[in-house]
Design brief:
The protein contains 4 helices and 4 strands, in the order αβαββαβα. With 135 residues, it is an alpha+beta fold. It has a single domain, classed as P-loop containing nucleotide triphosphate hydrolases (Rossmann fold). This is KAD4 kinase.
């Protein structure tokens, strides 16, 4: 997400005024497991997740048959360190938007369970886009 740091939030303030910020809370272990299961095809950038979007053949790209690799920062120990660092950096950002009364937080582990709540919030804040026939 963005902004991830207070400096980024302050820079964003300089170019626009936010009236809504969404914070998604996903348990640490869920994030660690998902990121650690991510493998990529270096040449194309195609991303696979061994849990919910695996390649047809384990360890190889579906289109080229070339080997997949796990990025160094996706290995379990690196993911844990990244998540701790993110939590520390994001805390003041969350507090800033909470103090402004524009922070809306949602918790869960599955997109299809969180999304309806986020969609309802966004639908209440953003007017629908009408097609040419409706105008």
């Amino acid at each position: 997400g963005f902004p991830r740091t207070l400096g980024q939030a302050e820079a964003l303030d300089g170019i626009c005024e936010l009236d809504l910020v969404i914070s998604l809370h996903v348990p640490f272990e869920t994030l660690k497991d998902r990121l650690s299961a991510r493998w990529v095809h270096p040449a194309s950038g195609r991303v696979y997740n061994m849990d919910f979007n695996p390649p047809h053949v384990h360890g190889v790209d579906d289109l080229t048959g070339e080997p997949l690799v796990q990025r160094e920062d996706d290995k379990p120990e690196a993911v844990a360190a990244r998540l701790r660092k993110y939590k520390d950096a994001a805390k003041p950002v969350i507090e800033l938007y909470k103090s402004r009364g524009i922070l809306h937080s949602f918790s869960g582990t599955e997109t299809n369970k969180i999304w309806p709540y986020v969609h309802t919030l966004l639908s209440s804040k953003i007017p629908p886009i009408l097609s040419a026939e409706e105008n």
